[in-house]
Amino acid sequence: MGTGVTIVAPSNLYDCRLGNSCFIGPFCEIQRGVSIGDYTKVQSHSFICELVTIGSHCFIGHGVMFTNDRLASGGPAMGDRTKWQSTHVGDHVSIGSNATILPVSICSHVVIGAGSVVTKDITKPGVYAGNPARFLRDISVP
Amino acid sequence: MGTGVTIVAPSNLYDCRLGNSCFIGPFCEIQRGVSIGDYTKVQSHSFICELVTIGSHCFIGHGVMFTNDRLASGGPAMGDRTKWQSTHVGDHVSIGSNATILPVSICSHVVIGAGSVVTKDITKPGVYAGNPARFLRDISVP
Amino acid sequence: MGTGVTIVAPSNLYDCRLGNSCFIGPFCEIQRGVSIGDYTKVQSHSFICELVTIGSHCFIGHGVMFTNDRLASGGPAMGDRTKWQSTHVGDHVSIGSNATILPVSICSHVVIGAGSVVTKDITKPGVYAGNPARFLRDISVP
Asked: Which of B97, B13, B22, B20 is nearest to B60 (CA)?
């Protein structure tokens, strides 16, 4: 765990890596092996599962659910990790509240609208929203 | 805080105003400055942020997420309150579980379907649902 | 409560029935009268209300919200149980994270995609997703 980290109780964090100056709101669960970069904020009620990596300067809204199992074989992997998939989120990514993130890669400088369901990789900076999430517009990348 | 208020633990409430006979379920976070009217119920897992005002006789379902930041400049306001926007909910408004409410105004006598994403002001009584939420049908207003 | 049940704190469970080898994650609320079958897992942040019955070998993801009130008369039933409706979930049903389940029946061998809103009965095995949830494809039923 880095320096200057704030964790608001109650939250359940397991063996995960938090960068410097991270903020974790209440009622969160963050599973083992998760890595979160510097200055990233995770708001209340969010769940971050194993095999998720989040970059720095990100904003994870309230009630955001990450996943590592697409239930692709008609049910959950039930501990069969060979069926789990990873999620990678770049830097300066903002994910709106109540969004759901399937196992995907999201590049840096992306905004996901609140309530969206991200089902595919996002490889171009911009604003995405909807169920399934689609590209809405560009954003200015510094 | 009014009389006859019920708050189920664990919930995190900050410096907010609750009217008479309000009910707050478990696993809620209600931020400072929020105002909630008489006889309004907030169910479990809901998050109500700063700059939200809710009237009386409202029903806020489970897992409802309010927002005050549209991430409009390509990222979160990160404490720059000049970029935050307020939400006003009238009286006799019912919001279904897992709904997401962007910073909008919702007039009195409105029903928001479960799982909806409200992105625009609602100025006419009725039932609204979907992502984004759209008008479905009228309701009888007493 | 059956044998071999795991419940991760904090969770609020009322007078409900849990079968053998059930798992209940943290930050859940399960109301009175709920029945959950053997080997079923309920992940973090989920809410299961009165009048819900879930079979065996099911997987309820994170942040899944069940409902028993369609707000059909323009507002919540507010304790008038004659207006509540029940939900029945069969066996081997997997419900993805952040899904919302209106009062419906879901047959056995069904997968509900993450972030979906189930508004109608599901009577045929398969994968369903979207808001509202629609049939996507068949699954192989053993």
From this structure: B97
